[in-house]
Amino acid sequence: KPKLKGVDFDAVVLGAGFGGLYSVHKLRNELGLHVQAYEKGEDVGGTWYWNRYPGALSDTESHIYRLSFDKEFLQEETWKNRYITQPEIMQHFRRMAERFDLRRSYQFNTMVTSAHFNEENNFWEIKTNKGDRVTAKFLVTGLGLLSATNIPDIKGRETFKGEQYHTSQWPSNVSLEGKRVGVIGNGSTGVQIITAIAPVVKHLTVFQRTPQYSVPAGQRPLSEVEIAAIKNNYDEVWDQVFSSATCFGFEESTVVGASVSEEERERVFEENWNKGGGFRFMLGTFCDVITNLEVNEAACEFIRKKIREIVKDPEVARKLSPTDLYLKRPLCDNGYYETFNRENVSLADIKEHPIIEFTPKGIKTTEGEHELDVIIYATGFDAIEGSYLRMDIRGRKGLTLREKWADVPTGYFGMTTTGFPNMFMILGPHGPFSSLPPVIETQVDWISDSVKYTLDQEFETIEPSAAAEKEWIETCDMTANYTLFPKGNAWFFGANIPGKNVANRLYYGGVANYRKVLKDFGYSGFIFNNVKSKQV
Ligand code: FAD
Ligand code: NA7
User: Fold this and answer.
1) pTM of the predicted structure, to 2 decimals
2) Distance, CA 380 to ligand 2 centroid (Å)?
């Protein structure tokens, strides 16, 4: 039964990834609220339920790709390798759901299609594709920032007679053995799947539009002793993570690359290339890789040199070598460039020879037709606002989120947005650029505290003031403009989707500062309303 009068539920939670699951735990198990949760997929896991393509792997290290709040659970769980694989993460989610009895609050296979704020009654009216119509005081959206699939509209797609899959909608029964496979895209996902399937398929054609910088991940099995050492030291491990900027488990470098010799730069790049990890290479080498053009170019040239060393065919090496700045999400791999030395792998440079159309037999580029049995889209996501704009969300005065975000999506602290009272977003726009579980944990803790505060004070609604939201976005933009990221074409600027406004969508001040801001600002930027609702 809801605690509050006049609603079906105290809170509705969307999504069953880290964000949604932890929200249900906090709101239901800790605050004692009556919570209903909806998930589009048929199981828990979020990102990891959907992204089950071969090679799917976290590139945050295993011991910190999880939430930190339950010390006993941390000790009970284990992992095999430095980076945790998709099947292992799924098992972790299933155990998490069981441990906190989360499934009973979920309705799976259910997509929320609309959420309208009813100003007369101060509650949310929520509808699903299964015909549910419910009301709730609070709406918590754990929709994910990389969960709205992007399938480019390429001419003739429906004419292809073979199989077609997007990496984030991967069915469980796909066999690629002995088949001629084409992969479109070579971002984080593309690099993983290309490397994983090359040894299995008959022939692999990689359709590359823009080459990317990637460094070794350094994936390896961990010994029992190494895992025990982490577990014995877990509190310190998390202290380090939460006091860093990007929460990848290493100290971001404070050394200015522009102030050291070329030889020293080479040495540091080489050392970190060998340690493994994309974020470590970008942020653990020098503090100015992302702020100084010359140092960024030095990192680029170091990776280009590695590509030339690794890839035997100089023409293929040339095509694989990026010429732009190193400003996308940093990639890491398990032998990506080496894959192009295989006899059964070829590279189709679709910038030089663009795709004209799909044909019944495969993909036709200006160079000719590539005959294929399977086409794989590793073409990424309509990131950050994508999942929100695929729903009909309306706030005060019937304003749609699509209208509010027509120029750029905005969020106060990445969690709330003016005009949409009692709506809390997890990983909404203008949250930190970071490894995500620590951000999710920080945000869900804050959301739960804010729900409690609102209820304890008997307020009807909480929402940020327009002035506070504007000021926060200016702060976020200032942090972005301090870096070179605005010069990149990354998905976190919206640059990967045609027609999207390319603009800053994140906060680059780091998670430690973000947590401090949340604490220092408290509720000073919020408007609370205590006008009682009509109570139906
Ligand atoms: P998600 O896990 O994305 O969950 C959102 C859920 O909401 C989904 O299950 C979706 O089905 C559901 N949903 C969406 N719309 C609706 C709707 N209308 N109705 C009902 N349900 C809906 N992050 C890292 O920090 N480190 C990594 O190494 C890393 N690797 C990644 C690798 C891949 C391939 C991808 C795609 C992402 C990766 N990420 C990584 C980012 C990852 O998304 C986050 O780490 C984290 O899993 C996000 O959790 P979440 O709960 O916020 O969202
Ligand atoms: P990304 O990083 O957005 O990469 C998508 C890839 O798909 C990239 O190589 C794109 O090339 C390519 N792409 C996209 N659209 C097209 C079209 N129309 N034609 C050809 N190629 C295209 O997505 P990922 O899934 O790899 O990674 C997203 C995040 O998930 C990642 O950062 C991790 O956090 C997990 P482009 O570079 O645009 O030329």
Assistant:
1) 0.98
2) 5
